[in-house]
UniProtKB/TrEMBL annotation:
Residues 31-452 form the Amidase domain. InterPro entries: Amidase, Amidase_CS, Amidase_dom, AS_sf. It holds the Pfam family Amidase. This is Amidase. It comes from Achromobacter seleniivolatilans.
Length: 476
């Protein structure tokens, strides 16, 4: 019997669960019931804003009946999945993490949710998020902050804004989840929870029907246990959608190449020179980073040190991403932020309101720089498949009321959003307090397949044994 056969059901990867369903070792209902039971037994993790148990069981039963009729809707038929609260699903609440929308029930279903169900997957419910997706620590004092499962004693940052999604996958409450990444919001919870978070190139997955933050920067992406699951879920969700113009601008080859994994070519991974890092790392994170470099060398990788062209400042791109995000977010939520009676978390209110003070000329100038940066990055990366750099400057810290302890996280993650790049966070080790530390790979827009090829090799080198938290404190 293989090591995988010994793995607890809730820590099996999604492809293994799908195989068990296909081979009738397990039914979708059995698997779904298992995850729903774990969610019910761990309310202290606060990962879900809404658990759709009745719907999930009905979907699982439907998946089993279809299989009995000889019909499999897709490669993850019958497998449970969780979705971020901002992804609308008719008949469920789409609060966007805000008390201003606590009673808003969706009448529409987002394209991503429609696709999940069309593939025969089972939606367990909606996961918690930072209010209006505006923050990377994952805090939400008005609706509840998910508890980072790596520390049962201290309330540490779960990473945001897809906070509940990261916690759900890390704690074995769902085998995979769909989140959103506008300034690092898939990669941050993945990095701080020791799982994989993938931000596809802009336009790979339709955002139609999702609550917006920034039209320019919003991207949906998976949080999973491994790269192969992230690739497969993205492949199922990817494709053109007339309701999201960004999906119509992406070359078809970017989508079709996801179906054909290949071994990365030798020497096609570069490492961002430390002088170009937009944030400094703590000693613990630096130790994990150096350890990762040694592991790569031992595995036969000799990444070249990559110095960006002078025009391509990662620190400046992080700031520009914040500028564009805030300017566009104000167009959606500025009226709420300016209304003192609106029940917003004051930290988020301040962030949204700041967008109203950005001059249009500065916003337009940032968009011009973005186009130039995307072209410069693609040109400078010719002959290279991926760029390796830190994903977090430190492990998850204790929550702070001002939400300022994780600013370095944003500086490291936001440049990929500004570049419209494909980016993926990979577990790389633990700090001295036992909290996960991650690295990330970036590739120019459209280079998703090559990025994932590299990531699939690197994950086996960086974390040959999957990182898992001790969940005994939650009775799991």
């Amino acid at each position: 019997m293989s090591e995988q056969d010994h793995t607890d059901l809730h820590f099996r990867d999604a492809r293994e669960l799908a195989r068990a369903i296909r081979q009738r070792e397990l039914s979708s209902r059995q698997i779904t019931t298992h995850f729903l039971d774990r969610i019910e037994r761990a309310p202290g993790l606060s990962a879900f804003s809404e658990v759709t148990a009745e719907r999930a069981l009905a979907q699982a039963d439907a998946a089993d009946r279809l299989q009995d009729a000889g019909i499999l809707m897709g490669p993850l038929h019958g497998v449970p999945v969780a979705v971020k609260d901002s992804i609308q699903w008719a008949g469920t609440t789409a609060s966007g993490g805000s008390q201003t929308r606590r009673n808003v029930v969706s009448t529409d279903t987002a394209a991503a949710a429609q696709t999940l169900m069309a593939q025969g997957m089972v939606i367990l419910g909606k996961t918690r998020m930072t209010e209006f997706a505006f923050g990377l620590s994952g805090q939400n004092p008005t609706q509840g902050t998910p508890h980072n499962p790596w520390d049962a004693n201290v309330a540490r940052a779960p990473g945001g804004s897809s906070s509940g999604a990261g916690v759900a996958v890390a704690a074995g409450l769902a085998p995979l989840a769909v989140g959103g990444d506008t300034g690092g919001s898939v990669r941050a919870p993945a990095a701080l929870n020791g799982v994989v978070g993938y931000k596809p190139s802009s336009g790979v997955i339709s955002r139609a029907g999702c609550l917006p933050l920034s039209d320019t920067l919003d991207v949906l992406g998976p949080i999973t246990r491994n790269v192969a699951d992230a690739r497969l879920l993205t492949q199922l969700l990817a494709g053109p959608d007339v309701d999201d113009a960004a999906t119509l601008a992406l070359p078809a080859a970017c989508i079709t190449s996801l179906r054909h994994p290949a071994a990365p070519r030798t020497g096609t991974i570069a490492v961002l020179a430390p002088q170009a890092w937009p944030a400094s790392l703590t000693d613990a994170s630096l130790r994990v980073w150096h350890q990762a470099q040694e592991q790569l060398e031992q595995a036969g990788f000799t990444p070249t040190v990559w110095h960006p062209p002078a025009s391509l400042s990662f620190a400046r791109m992080a700031d520009d991403n914040s500028l564009v995000l805030a300017y566009e977010a104000y167009r959606y939520y500025g009226a709420l932020a300016e209304n003192p009676a609106a029940p917003l978390w004051e930290v988020v209110r301040t962030r949204i309101a700041a967008g109203g003070r950005i001059a249009q000329a500065d916003y337009v100038a940032a968009l011009v720089r973005r186009r130039a940066d995307m072209a410069a990055f693609a040109d400078a990366m010719q002959g290279l498949d991926a760029l390796l750099m830190p994903a977090c400057d430190q492990g998850a810290q204790a929550l702070d009321n001002e939400d300022v302890r994780h600013t370095g996280l944003g500086k490291l993650l936001r440049p990929a959003n500004f570049l419209g790049a494909a980016a993926i966070a990979l577990p790389a080790g633990l700090d001295q307090q036992g909290m996960p530390i991650a690295v990330q790979l970036l590739a120019p827009e459209g280079g998703d397949a090559a990025l994932l090829d590299c990531a699939s090799v690197l994950e086996r080198v960086l974390a040959p044994i999957p990182l898992r938290p001790d969940l005994s404190a939650w009775g799991l």
